[in-house]
Amino acid sequence: MDYTVVHDPQADLIIATAGGQWEAEKDDAMIWQVVEMMRATGTRKVLVDIRTLKNIDLSILRLYERARMLQERRDELALASVRAALVYPTSEKKQTENYRFFETVARNRGLPYRLFGDYEEAIVWLSSN
After folding, report:
1. What is the per-residue pLDDT across 41-59, written as a single tens digit (0 to 9) for each?
2. How far is CA 59 from CA 41, 63, 109, in A?
3. Of 14, 68, 96, 120, whose CB neighbour count within 10 A is largest?
4. CA 19 → CA 1, 53, 55, distances in Å?
5. How far is CA 88 from CA 92, 101, 109, in A?
6. What is the pLDDT of residue 39?
7. Is the pTM of this model over 0.70?
């Protein structure tokens, strides 16, 4: 799995892009890098683009734990106004259901996360007030 995490100061946006074969350890590392960049830059909007990621193996339990961990980390760092969009590959129906579960858990925990099958829709949502 290859990934990049960059800060776009003009858009006030952190963009994380991942591709290749999914790997749990690298996925976790990417998320921590995003959180650290948010802390360092003060940017509160995040776009995670995983449209080209293959063989994603995120169980329901792992997705639930990810949402719980993100909420705890957000609370620790006082990052309450974060808005995050996840652009995912819509071709995998099973994973789509799992992503929707993650979105529901995240929102139930007060995290303003949304899933998108379209990159441009995600950008529009992140740019809106």
Report:
1. 989 899 999 999 887 777 7
2. 32, 6, 19
3. 14
4. 6, 4, 10
5. 9, 13, 21
6. 85
7. yes
Please write the tens of the pLDDT for every residue from 55-107: 777 777 777 777 777 777 777 766 655 788 999 887 777 778 878 888 888 88
Q: Can you say how many angstroms the Cα of residue 35 is from the centroid of all Cα atoms in its chain?
A: 10
Asked if 18 contacts 50 with a C-beta cutoff of 8 angstroms, the reply is yes
Q: Would you call 5 exposed, middle or buried from its count of C-beta atoms within 10 A (0-12, 13-18, 19+)?
A: buried
Nearest to 95 by CA among 55, 46, 49: 55
